[in-house]
Fold each of these.
Amino acid sequence: MDAHDDVRTAPRALATEAVHAGRDDLARQGLHAPPIDLSTTYPSYDSRGEAARIDAFAATGAEPDGPPVYGRLGNPTVARFETALARLEGTEAAVAFASGMAALSAVLLVRGSMGLRHVVAVRPLYGCSDHLLTAGLLGSEVTWTDPAGVADALRPDTGLVLVESPANPTLAEVDLRAVAHACGSVPLLVDNTFATPVLQRPAEQGARLVLHSATKYLGGHGDVLAGVVACDEEFAGRLRQVRFATGGVLHPLAGYLLLRGLSTLPVRVRAASATAAELARRLTADPRVARVHYPRIGGAMVAFEVHGDPHEVIAGVRLITPAVSLGSVDTLIQHPASISHRIVDAEDRRGAGVGDRLLRMSVGLEDVDDLWSDLDQALKRCETGAGNGATGHRAPAPAH
Ligand SMILES: *Cc1c(COP(=O)(O)O)cnc(C)c1O
């Protein structure tokens, strides 16, 4: 170990890790920006050596030593993002995928391939995660319960317990330490997409697996689709093997953009959270709003229920972008019952607290007063339509 390595292993604060993790080797190489390695294959005159590396990978799923072999086995640019995210979540490793859903699928395949196909899950979850489990698309079988019911729902073939906190879209919070305790030896997966490691590090509270739709805050600019699982090295090996066999890899350009996104993650999340908390306060005081959901741990997501027609708010925003997804630098608003959670059966959706008048807003980095005046004028439209009901007749949006 040389002097450089000593420095690298010293504990560092999250804000420091965000801009340095995954980049520790660059200065010694005379580089500042990380290189993007777009190779799908890697020439080698040593096929004996390659055979040994493939054998080692098949045995443990450990990142192959020496030069890379093929893009589906691993990519150096993507590996930088994985290293950085693991550092931020405080785990040994992280494994990146083409999307959040590809990441969740890989986790289910790892456990299912071990004969542990039963999943215990707490609603609400992101709509497509709910759908993947409810439909049993990957051969899993789900038991839905509340956090207090987790221990009783476990079976000998339970391979996974799955929770989101704060949950999409109601921002309901789960006591992660208590649920981790209830899981015993069954791995707890926490979807940490909404909180990000800036606000919450589930691994410190007993979660074995921390999942992100990196499409959201980690990328942060609405231009990358990606997923990642932060976990211990043993589970990471299995995830890499599934990724190799099923092919849900992340593109190296996406890996580069995610690494760049991480460097501003702490400032973005803190700034947007401060604005979101203020908007939540103003919405709470507004008579046109029936209920506001804002988590105790804070964050940049606000959900609220209107007395009038929520479709009118969506049709009425001008500065705020009416779009699904979240975690971008600009503010987005959507109607979960119509979009993000449309694929969930209406009864299940309402049972999980996702009402027909609920709107979900992802607060960005705009000025708080500009956001408020846009919300205020959109709420005025909804006020005019009050009493029509969430599914009532609505006028077409004016041209803009
Ligand atoms: C968006 C989202 C997902 C799915 O991620 P994709 O990148 O869209 O595949 C999973 N969980 C949560 C909480 C999400 O918001």
Amino acid sequence: MKTAVATALLAAVASYAAPTKRAVTDTDILQYALTLEHLENAFYHGFLDQFDDAAFTNAGFPDWVRGRVKNIAEHEAQHVALLSGALGSAATQPCTYSFPTVTDPKSFMALATVIENVGVSAYLGAASSIMESAYVTVAGSILTTEARHQAWLNSAVEKAAAWSGPEDTPLDFDEVYSIASAFITSCPSTNPTLPVKAFPALTIGTDGTITTTASTAGTYVQLIQGLETNVFPVVNGKVQGLPTTQGIAYAVLTTQANSTLVGDDNILAGPMIFNAPFNSKQSNPAPSF
Ligand SMILES: *[C@@H]1O[C@H](CO)[C@@H](O)[C@H](O)[C@H]1NC(C)=O
């Protein structure tokens, strides 16, 4: 059955660059997902232990907020249990983590919205690499739950819109791992080795100045948001014409000039996360691309 809507959708999908296919197995993908779930689980449980009801109230949150965050933490523990159960003896064990920007319930909640967004992008980006269809359903059921977490955190707590736009953003394995690894201090040496790597950090100043350990010669910044990727040249270490985004967007430094071909194979640094929630009382203006 190919309706007009389906045809339009297929055309849109065809013009979108699927994350680069890699020689990853389903076990790799489950271990990768579990790596992220362990991180989320430790993040929520660690800070809920640290910030009690009074800390949340003192930070100005209504009295029901912490209980709901606790519920999210329980979901993450359940995701860990689900994936660990599927992997059995091949299950990745938790690492130790560091979240230096978190100093109080407010900064904890702000980072939670970002971490949930990255979780959504990770499952979305990995979906096309999963071989076993039953795992797609499991991953999908976790993905939609992470999206609800993100929506609630953004909307009810950050008073921002519950979404970034009409489509969420799929990210490749290395892009996600680059973000996650910044929070990982060390892992048990017995953990399975994942076929993923972390790119050097990327920072783009408000005037477009790029700070990174990677070379900026002959490079581009690609801005990824939803299923849209847009390319901006880098001249003398400055990205040219990068627009202001709303919601969550990801910028990478790449040797690739073609926006449909950007991916783990050609990224040099990043992603840098732009997180500028727009006011949910206003309607969503058109993207500024
Ligand atoms: C970008 O890559 C796609 C896929 O290979 C190709 O169809 C398209 O023509 C390329 N665009 C440009 C401007 O080279």
